Amino acid sequence: MAKAKRILKWQRDPEGMRLRILEAAKQEFAAHGLAGARVDRIAEKAGANKRMLYYHVGNKEDLYLEVLEGTYEKIRAEERTLDLEHLDPPEAIARLIDFTWNYFLRNPEFLALLNTENLARAKHLKRSTKVKSMHSPFVEMIRAVVTRGVESGNFRAAVDPVQLYISIAALAFFYLSNSATLSVIFGRDLLKKEARDERLDHMIALVLAALTGKSTAAFGRMEMPTLQPVEHQVM
Amino acid sequence: MAKAKRILKWQRDPEGMRLRILEAAKQEFAAHGLAGARVDRIAEKAGANKRMLYYHVGNKEDLYLEVLEGTYEKIRAEERTLDLEHLDPPEAIARLIDFTWNYFLRNPEFLALLNTENLARAKHLKRSTKVKSMHSPFVEMIRAVVTRGVESGNFRAAVDPVQLYISIAALAFFYLSNSATLSVIFGRDLLKKEARDERLDHMIALVLAALTGKSTAAFGRMEMPTLQPVEHQVM
DNA sequence: ACAGTATTTATCCAACGGGTTAATTTCTGT
DNA sequence: ACAGAAATTAACCCGTTGGATAAATACTGT
After folding, report:
1. Residue B204 resides in a domain
2. Residue-number span of the structural domain to which A30 is assigned
3. Which residues on B lie below 8 Å from A112 (Cβ)?
4. With an 8 Å Cβ cutoff, is A226 touching chain B?
5. What pLDDT does A19 receive?
6. A94 and A185: one domain?
7. Which residues of chain A have pLDDT under 70?
8. CATH number of the CATH domain containing B47
9. Is nucleic acid strand D under 7 Å from B60's C-beta?
10. Once rounded to an integer, what is the mean pLDDT over residues B12-22?
11. Which residues lie closer than 8 Å to A170 by C-beta, 6 or more apart?
12. Residues A77 and A45 occupy one common structural domain
């Protein structure tokens, strides 16, 4: 025959395929949102056929929910390894802030996915049974730190742990998630190394100052940036 | 004739039409994002024909940019009326926080539109000449407050005004923009009246405590919520 | 009145995009 | 070996959607 027998056809790899699909979907949903994501692109990025998505996961929305659940699972899992119990309360909070900040930096898709889900008013997340259950321990972890902080006299008031965590997440999330528009309107690159370092200092200083009522070493650094001619600094 | 002459046909109203189109587009883009927005729905909501969008504004992306610019213009315009110069620095900051919070509450489309634009990495905003220019005065307004606060001895450190504003916006923006997912994962309704009031107190207390180093009346209230059995409180 | 222009309506269409059908190929147990 | 199941491919279907064309209708100045 003119056409020789094809040498390498394909091998089966259901688990690998599934993972590649989910990873590709995560990238695609994060980059374009739910409506903007293209099933064909996901298939292509996964090195697969579009039919595979439906075979291994389900339709577009199922795919999306699975990605979202995996995303939450990942961050909460990493947080569990933080070992805050053995740190001084202020240290523990600083560590939580540091971790959150760096996690968001390392995982920009997380931010985008959450925004996408909130645009949908958490329609999909509400259907998820997995996600709801994984947050009580996390809240308790923070509550324990706060309680210790109050008892040891380090913290002035026993803040609501949910409120506190939302604030910590907010300071990091908003800065990074909105860095594109903020960089444009304020005319400076918020993602460059120095800006990032400065932001982390600022966040830790802000939260610890409020909790402890004392100025920290880091807080002192808040003075420095102001002296720079901050406006019109081209990106 | 069986079919009588149509009584009311239609009147011309170019300006009104344009406004209705932009308002409808704002709602649509905010509700569904750029990719999810439907040109037909915008036309319908505006009480217009789809052709009108193209006649009065341009294609979908032009429409989107115009909405976005209008959105920024509106918030910055309202901020200019805040009159922070005549307030005590801590009062001025509290007022800015209060305003920002309530503006976000009153204008949820603003949050959604910014998120959408950040998903697109500010691609459209970068094309806009209008938007960039309107922010220097705003930053200066905040800088002036901070400077006065330091001079009067109210504030411990001269924080970078951009950094400070980003933090203020972050505390309000993230809470509201992500209220859907946060309400699900923490199992409580973050948008109900008491929760909103509590949040505003918390934000003001947090920022002022960090700036002034002193506990405020509002900060005392941070203690209360913790005593509630916060977990598993059904929405 | 009436001609010319501005505004609005009524259709149409080509491309796209999610999802499906059916055929093909690899793997597994016996 | 081989039958049946699992995994993968190729091709197609059909409603949707952004955008375009052309015709109709209201307004304006003269």
Report:
1. yes
2. 13-58
3. 119
4. yes
5. 96
6. yes
7. 1-8, 215-235
8. 1.10.10.60
9. yes
10. 92
11. B170, B171, B173, B174, B175
12. no
